[in-house]
Amino acid sequence: MSQVQTLSPASAAERSRVMSTATSSALMLAPVLLLCGVFIFIPALLTVAGSFFSFGVTSPHWDFVGGANYARAATDPVFWTAMKNNIILVVGSVVLQVGLGTILAAILDRGIPTGSTFFRTIIFAPIVVSSVAVALIWLIIFDPNTGILNAIVKGMGLTPPPMGWLGDPNISIWMVLIVGTWQYTGFMMVMILAGLQAIPKELYEAAAFDGARGVKAFWYITLPGIRNVLAVAALVTTISGFKAFDLIFVLTQGGPANATQVLGTYIYFQAFKFNDMGYAYAISVVLLAVAVVLGSLQLKSNRRA
Amino acid sequence: MPRFRLTALVTYGAVTAWSLFVVLPLLWMVMAAFKTRREIFTNPLGLPSGFSFDSFSRAWGVGMGTFMLNSVIAVGLAVLVIVIVSGMAAYVLARTDSPIAKGIYLLIVACFAVPLTAVLVPLYQMVSAAGMLNSPLAIVLPYSAYGIPFTTMLFYAFFLDFPRELEEAARLDGCNQLEIFFKIIIPLSGPVVASAAIFQAVFGWNEFLLAMLMLTKTEAKTLPVGILQLKGEYASDWPAVMAGLAIATVPILMIFILAQRYFVRSLAGIGK
């Protein structure tokens, strides 16, 4: 009995401490749940729900149309052009940005005796410049009248494309890819460099002892050592390839004649130019589905890396 | 020996070539800003004939100062919210074993996969219905929300490895969870907080799509939206546009060069 009496005040205090921890936990979690709920979760649900309706940006009437928006996308050539352009950007960016990023990172890690911080700083710098500024700078580099690219090409005795670098539907998406590579290769390089520096130096010494140096060491030690980092780099690049908007919006507005349209710009134009919200929502759902699949892959490989 | 010299030539050649490819457009932007409107047509490749700041004052007149201030305020607020809110949540989640906590963590991870581009339209309609268009909150709150998942995951991993002895000592001294977080955890989390803050600041400073939709009045615009307006107003005045770009990018490049070590540590973190 006496034991119970001595215990009970303590357990009451214990209980109140647990209670207050529960309360403070809830308080500390509430802002995250509120912000992510209101600005991520609800819009994501609305996107899926809205894709089955037809409505305008300010229209109070939502007409249920079932899968009509998706059926329309399936037969809309511009939607497929946009999808194709996203895939071109994704594949091109993975090859160029991750590929060049790996080579540059390997050179900075072991290929040059001095100056690697200097070069790393320069090559990484474009990541802090806003895409709008990057696009505007390249817009006048590509400009047929004032552009330096035409001046350089003419200086070499060649003929620049008569319709302009961004005006020719056959090459414009590749010009976008070049600008993206200019901006993001340094970012990939830095990510991969972090992975390279985690490879134990003894491995290289042992390999050099066995006669594997330079390119051989790169092939047999460096590449296997950064497999996981490369996978994450490729996924990050793939996701941003599907999210592409800024560069294209400023460089070409999706033109000429939809030649550089991507899902992001097409959503924007359907929603805010053609006031076709339901259709914009349906395309958004496609983008959302792609992003969620890729995002879960990224988290998986992140965990392994 | 000559073999090594050849290797050095190739490696230095490669990094120098890419560095030039990166630097020349930026250098050209600055040079074009000093050229006259005629010079930029007649002499696109050469140096400017003089150093006149006319185009800078034309660009500044559009409101570069206001754009910059708006960007500083929006990014500063968003980074502050992201760090505090994600930190608190990550700390609670890293110290709780209940299934509810696991569920909440999974929910936050799921939010990480949702790109802004895919939910842009409903987001715009919600913000517009709430009457928040052209207010800084119209971008501060979404930037915060979209910065939270990654930051929470980053902090969560950090707090799991955080030694518990100090927290226990503080608890015995009568500190509650909130006090422990602000008095013990945050002061000892400097590097990870700095990493998260830099990462989110770079994202927010450059974010364009949402800002363009939400901020349509000149006096409300942030830098990325503002410099696009510059191009709209000075359609053929490339020197003014380039001067505006120089005003917008040179300061951030300077900060980057001075603090590049921290930027590298922060941005390379996404691969981990």
Brief description of this entry?
The complex is a heterodimer of chains A (305) and B (272). By secondary structure, chain A is an all-alpha fold. Chain A has 13 helices and two strands; from the N terminus they run αββαααααααααααα.
What does this structure look like?
The complex is a heterodimer of chains A (305) and B (272). Chain A has 305 residues and is mainly alpha-helical. Chain A has helices at 2-50, 68-74, 77-111, 116-124, 131-142, 148-155, 172-196, 201-209, 214-225, 227-243, 246-251, 263-272, 277-304; strands spanning 53-54, 63-64. A two-stranded antiparallel ribbon of chain A has the order 1-2. In chain A, helix 3 packs antiparallel against helix 10. The longest helix of chain A is centred in the N-terminal third of the chain and has 49 residues, at 2-50. Chain B has 272 residues and is mostly helical. In chain B, 77% of the residues lie in helices and 0% in strands. Chain B has helices spanning 2-34, 39-42, 54-61, 64-94, 99-112, 116-129, 137-160, 165-172, 177-185, 190-206, 209-214, 223-233, 238-258, 260-268. In chain B, helix 4 crosses helix 9 (177-185), helix 7 (137-160) packs antiparallel against helix 10 and helix 10 packs across helix 14 (260-268). Chain B is globular and about 75 Å long. The model of chain B has no long low-confidence stretch (mean pLDDT 89). Chains A and B meet through helix 1, helix 3, helix 4, helix 5 and helix 6 of A and helix 1, helix 4, helix 5, helix 6 and helix 7 of B.
